[in-house]
């Protein structure tokens, strides 16, 4: 059975998606944005008070990389907290009254399922192409943002394989199409990864600073301070290229260049002791502190609509 403090299998997450999305029709609905390579439906949950007019929105995704299980746990936590604190937490209430939050609980479902059944350290998608026996591409190298120019590999066997063309991975195409279709309402893009305790923003495909660099940095530092206030967990903020490494084709850079100004990549706990194998006992504290950072960004976006 599904638990917010465990790493749930895809099957459990899938039935959770069905039940949570029918639990409160005034606050949550779901839509399928396409299927994965292996045919699994990609559900996006829309959180927000039902309204007759179209609301500005935030897009949040988890599980771009298969082995980063704490990421996937966070999206489930976010949905739970949104539903359970709407009406009592003034910030969540005001956020969901004014905006919609689109949550993609697992971006790379095929890969995630594979990490549960075969190889815990799998990162990429599970797509195949004739001519190579190697499987999958790195979804966070497959977006159309300086594609495959830097920090990505054109070798299909590499863990950072950029794919055969931008958006060659159907999961990337489905998300990109959804965000393009909803471009006029998308005010923020937040993507959750692990690990290293970083809050990154564009760019990663170049060392050049983004036009909105100082504002993005200011908001990231505010969000990191909010996160740290709970348990003292320290995060470093900065542009991807200079803060972690240069790497082209990422979703954050792509969303930013599309016009979604507040574009952030979280790298959750820890700093390497457990790495991708973060114990389940850390799910709750990690998610609770991360909520504060995500809510900080959301509040800033809301205030500046
Ligand atoms: O390399 C990545 O895709 C991310 N780190 S991870 O360890 N989770 O794989 C960092 C992504 C930063 N943003 C871009 N490179 N665009
Ligand atoms: Zn990642
Ligand atoms: Zn809570």
Automatic annotation (TrEMBL):
Keywords: Carboxypeptidase, Disulfide bond, Hydrolase, Metal-binding, Metalloprotease, Protease, Signal, Zinc. The active site is at 267 (proton donor/acceptor). It is an enzyme of class 3 (hydrolase). Residues 6-301 form the Peptidase M14 domain. Its cofactor is Zn(2+). GO terms for molecular function: metallocarboxypeptidase activity; zinc ion binding. One of its GO terms (cellular component) is extracellular space. GO terms for biological process: proteolysis. It is found in: Zymogen granule lumen. Its EC number is 3.4.17.2. It catalyses: Preferential release of a C-terminal lysine or arginine amino acid. Belongs to the peptidase M14 family. This is Carboxypeptidase B. The chain holds residues 111 to 415 of 416 of the full protein.
């Amino acid at each position: 059975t599904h638990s917010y403090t465990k790493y749930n299998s895809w099957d459990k997450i899938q039935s959770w998606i069905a039940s949570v999305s029918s639990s409160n029709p005034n606050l949550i609905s779901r839509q399928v944005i396409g299927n994965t390579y292996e045919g699994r439906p990609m559900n996006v949950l829309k959180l927000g008070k039902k309204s007759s007019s179209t609301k500005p929105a935030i897009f949040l995704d988890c599980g771009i990389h298969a082995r980063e299980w704490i990421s996937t746990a966070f999206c489930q936590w976010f949905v739970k907290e949104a539903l359970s604190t709407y009406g009592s937490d003034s910030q969540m209430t005001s956020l969901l009254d004014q905006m919609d939050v689109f949550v993609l609980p697992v971006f790379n479902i095929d890969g995630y399922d594979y990490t549960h059944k075969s190889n815990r350290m799998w990162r990429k998608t599970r797509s195949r192409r004739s001519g190579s026996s190697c499987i999958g591409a790195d979804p966070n190298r497959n977006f159309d943002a300086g594609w495959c120019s830097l920090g990505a590999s054109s070798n299909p066997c590499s863990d950072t394989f950029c794919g055969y063309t931008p958006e060659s991975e159907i999961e990337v195409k489905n998300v990109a199409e959804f965000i393009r279709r909803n471009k006029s309402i998308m005010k923020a893009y937040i993507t959750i990864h692990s690990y290293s305790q970083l809050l990154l923003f564009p760019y990663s495909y170049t060392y050049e600073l983004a036009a909105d660099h100082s504002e993005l940095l200011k908001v990231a530092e505010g969000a990191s301070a909010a996160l740290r206030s709970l348990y003292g967990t320290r995060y470093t903020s900065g542009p991807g290229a200079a803060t972690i490494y240069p790497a082209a084709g990422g979703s954050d850079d792509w969303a930013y260049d599309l016009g979604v100004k507040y574009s952030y990549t979280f790298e959750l706990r820890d700093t390497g002791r457990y790495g991708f194998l973060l114990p389940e006992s850390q799910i709750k504290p990690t998610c609770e502190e991360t909520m504060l950072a995500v809510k900080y960004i959301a509040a800033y976006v809301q205030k500046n609509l």
